[in-house]
Design brief:
alpha/beta; TIM Barrel; 9-stranded mixed sheet; about 20% strand
């Protein structure tokens, strides 16, 4: 067999295989997987549902960043690297610099549960190894990457501000709504939904709560930040009110339910 024929057959086979690729999920930029590590396949379930935002809680234990909600649940083999950073790194390499092929940026929220300073410093060292896939801030210069890390939970704002190079941004709270910190440092305001409303999705949303929600979203957006609420029941009526108000991502434990809601809103 000639070299040309061999090349032609290999090329033809590659074209056939590419043409037979299983299409990926519809990418949902408003979908956030709350406490993602509770799912049967952390990260992977969220990605298969098209989610562009996931949350992982971490504990620093014997120098390792272990993913769990409570200290008694930590397991030595469930590291942040194994469950999240390594799979994401592989996807970015595979998909030409994106988590989803030709898709939007992705957010990994890291909620620090143990000592703020010690855990953040350990996390910073780990993130440095994955810098090529992350949004990196040097001084006031932002180098966008396909993945943004946002630090929540036990935060260390002063330490983060003093760093010459950061591989993450800080999650703000409603108490930070009038902060003058630049959006590259505090791109989000996130808080418990109960601070704005205790509505559980039954019947109409109280008008006073609706107005408070809309005003809060407008105020957050006026500062160049985005807005998220946690502690919201997985109810389509609640997601709809948040979506109409302009809340930037919708929180869910039930991934299929939020996916189906968002697809129904977009006409799929």
């Amino acid at each position: 067999m000639s070299r040309f024929v061999s090349w032609f057959l290999v090329t033809l086979l590659a074209m056939v295989l590419i043409g037979c690729e299983t299409p990926g999920p519809i990418v949902l930029t408003q979908a956030h997987a709350h406490n993602d590590y509770h799912h049967a396949r952390p990260l992977l379930d969220a990605l298969e549902h098209g989610f562009c935002s996931v949350e992982a809680d971490i504990h620093l234990v014997d120098g390792q960043l272990l993913v769990a909600h409570d200290p008694e649940d930590v397991q030595a083999d469930r590291t942040l690297q194994k469950l999240y950073l390594d799979p994401l790194f592989g996807r970015v390499k595979q998909n030409g610099g994106h988590v989803f092929r030709n898709g939007p940026d992705f957010i990994l929220w890291i909620d620090i549960k143990t000592d703020a300073v010690e855990t953040y410093l350990a996390l910073h060292e780990v993130l440095a190894r994955y810098a090529e896939m992350l949004t990196v801030v040097t001084g006031n210069q932002v180098q966008p990457g396909p993945i943004q890390i946002v630090i929540s939970g036990n935060r260390v704002p002063q330490l983060m501000k003093e760093q010459k190079v950061r591989y993450s941004a800080m999650d703000g709270r409603l108490s930070d709504i009038n902060s003058d910190e630049p959006p590259h440092f505090m791109p989000w305001i996130s808080d418990n939904a109960s601070k704005l409303s205790n509505w559980d999705g039954s019947g109409p949303m109280p008008e006073e709560d609706r107005q408070k929600l809309h005003e809060t979203v407008r105020e957050v957006h006026s500062k160049g930040r985005k807005f998220r609420l946690w502690g919201t029941p997985d109810q389509p009526a609640i997601w709809k009110e948040l979506q109409v108000a302009g809340v930037d991502i919708l929180n869910a434990d039930n991934l299929p339910a939020l996916r189906d809601f968002l697809l129904s809103q977009s006409g799929h």
